[in-house]
Protein backbone atom coordinates (compact mmCIF):
# COMPACT_ATOMS: atom_id res chain seq x y z
CA UNK A 1 0.00 0.00 0.00
CA UNK A 2 2.82 2.39 0.87
CA UNK A 3 4.49 1.69 -2.49
CA UNK A 4 1.28 2.55 -4.33
CA UNK A 5 0.97 5.80 -2.39
CA UNK A 6 4.61 6.70 -3.09
CA UNK A 7 4.21 5.95 -6.79
CA UNK A 8 1.07 8.09 -6.93
CA UNK A 9 2.88 11.03 -5.34
CA UNK A 10 5.83 10.56 -7.69
CA UNK A 11 3.51 10.49 -10.71
CA UNK A 12 1.82 13.72 -9.64
CA UNK A 13 5.18 15.33 -8.96
CA UNK A 14 6.52 14.37 -12.39
CA UNK A 15 3.33 15.49 -14.10
CA UNK A 16 3.74 18.92 -12.52
CA UNK A 17 7.09 19.62 -14.17
CA UNK A 18 7.03 19.40 -17.94
CA UNK A 19 10.75 19.72 -18.63
CA UNK A 20 14.03 18.47 -17.25
CA UNK A 21 14.81 22.03 -16.17
CA UNK A 22 11.50 22.17 -14.32
CA UNK A 23 12.34 18.89 -12.64
CA UNK A 24 15.67 20.30 -11.49
CA UNK A 25 14.00 23.40 -10.07
CA UNK A 26 11.49 21.26 -8.21
CA UNK A 27 14.30 19.20 -6.70
CA UNK A 28 16.03 22.38 -5.57
CA UNK A 29 12.86 23.57 -3.84
CA UNK A 30 12.46 20.24 -2.06
CA UNK A 31 16.11 20.32 -1.03
CA UNK A 32 15.76 23.83 0.34
CA UNK A 33 12.73 22.86 2.43
CA UNK A 34 14.48 19.78 3.81
CA UNK A 35 17.56 21.84 4.63
CA UNK A 36 15.57 24.54 6.41
CA UNK A 37 13.62 21.92 8.35
CA UNK A 38 16.88 20.29 9.42
CA UNK A 39 18.23 23.61 10.75
CA UNK A 40 15.28 24.07 13.12
Query: Rg, please?
Result: 12 Å
Number of helices: 2
Question: Residue ranges: pLDDT <50 for 5 or more in a row?
Answer: none
Shape: flat
Distance, first to last CA? 31 Å
Mean pLDDT: 77
**Structural class assignment:** mainly alpha
Q: What's the total number of strands? A: 0
Portion in beta strands = under 5%
Helix content: over 70%
How can the largest sheet be summarized? Answer: none
Write down the secondary-structure element order: HH
Record keyword descriptors for this entry:
flat; mainly alpha
Give the SSE map.
Blueprint: H1 2-16, H2 20-39
How would you sum up this structure, described in words?
By secondary structure, the chain is an all-alpha fold. The chain has helices spanning 2-16, 20-39. The longest helix has 20 residues, at 20-39. The protein is flat, with a radius of gyration of 12 Å. The model has no long low-confidence stretch (mean pLDDT 77).
Brief sketch in words of this structure:
The chain has 40 residues and is mostly helical.
Amino acid sequence: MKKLFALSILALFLAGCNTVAGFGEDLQKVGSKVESAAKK
